[in-house]
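Re: zinc ion structure - here you go.
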Amino acid sequence: MSFAEWILIAALFLELALRLALEIREVRIVHGRFDRFTVFRVLPVVNDVFPAEANFTNDRQGAFVCAHEKAHAELHHGFVRRSLQFGFALFCALTLGAAGVYLRFNLLELLLLFHLIFAVAKILFHVVCFTEEYEADFVAAKRVQRGVATRALESLLIQEFPRTPLFAYVYRTHPTARMRLDRISRTCKKNRR
Ligand SMILES: [Zn+2]
């Protein structure tokens, strides 16, 4: 086996270990047990195919949700996300092409390499998404009546399967309702000062 192949395998084992550690941390902090999606999340490549979790609440319609969606559109968040996805596709095409030509990776190795790039890129993508969500929340909260934003997020909090922020960064495109509530109350407090 070549040096590059050893690195690839080591990276996959590292991913497995890190994901497992995250699951154990989640169990200890939040629920006290593993859920049925744990195996799908932990196994490399399998986690690209299956959804990370079943419970992904949709915001119910309301003044705050409408204002939030409008803010997304006005701030061109959709465009930012599509540009990032395009950049990712381009980066993958170049990297995989180079790995195929220079490292002589076979199809399976290219698939595994793609998986690793995808796994890291997803987390970076989520970081950008979270920033956009906070931004849309902030704009929306300024436009609706005082208390409407917090009430909307509190009702979301009740419906939502609770997760730690670290878990949300790895698996979700939206911050948890708890994270959004904390952020909203912090920015409101700052503005009132
Ligand atoms: Zn949003």
